[in-house]
Amino acid sequence: MNVNRNFKDNLMGKKKVIFIVCFIFAVALIAAILHMVSGGEKDSTKNILYADKVSVITGNGSGTVNRFAGVVEAQDTLKISLSEGQKVKEIFVEKGQEVEPGTKLFEYDTEELAMTLEQGNLELEKIGNSISNLNSQIAALTTEKKNAPAGEQLSYTTQIQELQTNVKQEEYNYKVKELEVNRTKKSLESSTVTSTIAGIIQEINPDPGYDDYSGEKQAFMSILSTGKYRIKGKISEQNIGELQSGMDVTVRARNNQEEIWKGSVDVIDTEKPESSSQSEMYSGSDSSARATKYPFYVTLETSDGLMLGQHVYIEPGTGVNTEGLHLMTAYIVDADGKEPYVWVANKKDRLEKRNVKLGAYDEEQDTWEITEGLKETDYIVWPDGECKEGAAVQKNENVQTGGMEEGE
Is the pLDDT of residue 2 over 80? Predict the structure, then answer.
């Protein structure tokens, strides 16, 4: 009996061990599955794509279009630097003053320049005398070489070649010094500097130092050109796909939005991002306010009526309403192929391909008429390498100013 009881006890003990091991294994398996699921969800939302409403992109919304704040700045800047040794005797203008072509800006101190010129002429004369002396020595040695014995011919040849090398060096020195003298003469002849453009004095640096950012020497005087303007705006990293170099844009005055100018995006400077400060106020979502901004520049067809420093709105497109739905070619994948499609955010905020039928192509605006497959209420994503079926999408529900705040 004892034997049977011991056997049963051992069997029950083994069953308990097996049960515990199986239980631990099951718990570990469930934990691993939950970790994989939660990890998958995190990964799926790691790179969120941003979608914009079709009516906003095309400008067919109810009075709402994507617009970016901009400011009018000079197209060109004239920078005047001082050469080494140049000093200014008198300045005739001040910062903020408007100037015209021919306006006197400043006058060089010519006293030191005159001394420099005199010293330069003396050095030129000295070098010229040295060259003449060397040529005389070469001529004398050449004559002596003709009558010298064969054993001395090599010595004469070596001396002549050395003198000829010295002549070439001195001739080079003469050319360098002559350039310096000519520059000094030119400075003396034009000791009073005048403006070559119409503009506004931006800065005057009586003692030019070096720029902390670029390390380059500062200009003595800078003049912002007037009459030739461009527009500077800023675009967030979320909306950067909405603009391209060469894209037509409409510029509107803030105080009178019926007053417009036509232009095109010249460059989007992604090399110089500007981070938004928390104190800045932007319309739209918090994520937009924290987004990195990139400056972009608009070249205008005409700048008549604009003023330097004026604040404006920049809108993609020509601002001309057309019938039908016209979408920029850049949003359409395989526009020239048999099955063109766009990337659409579905009701679950996931990305999906949607085939569209194209109508007429507008070469001037680089847009296609969408006849089937897309509505103004849909949200689409700018196509790039991140676009994949099922990818997470965040819809930009609000119109973004995308750029500078009102007071900037």
Answer: no
Cβ proximity of 388 and 42 under 8 Å? no
Mean pLDDT of 229-251: 87
d(CA 304, CA 340): 42
Higher-scoring residue by pLDDT: 226, 101:
101
Q: List beta partners, residue 50.
A: 394
CA distance 20 to 229: 80
User: DSSP character for 301?
Assistant: S
Nearest-5° Cα angle at 300, 295 to 303: 115
Q: CA torsion 97→103→106→109, rounded to 10°? A: -170
Strand ranges (DSSP E) for 19-67? Answer: 49-53
Strand, coil or helix: 292:
strand
Structure tokens at 305: 């009526």
Distance CA 48, CA 41 (A): 12
Structure tokens at 328: 């920029």
CA–CA distance, 77 with 103 (Å, rounded to integer): 16
d(CA 220, CA 238) in angstroms, rounded, equals: 40
Question: And the tokens for 387?
Answer: 């676009």
pTM score, whole prediction: 0.40
Helix, strand, coil fractions of the chain, as percent rounded to 5: 35, 30, 40
Full 3-state SS string of 204-221: ECCCCCECCCCCCECCCE
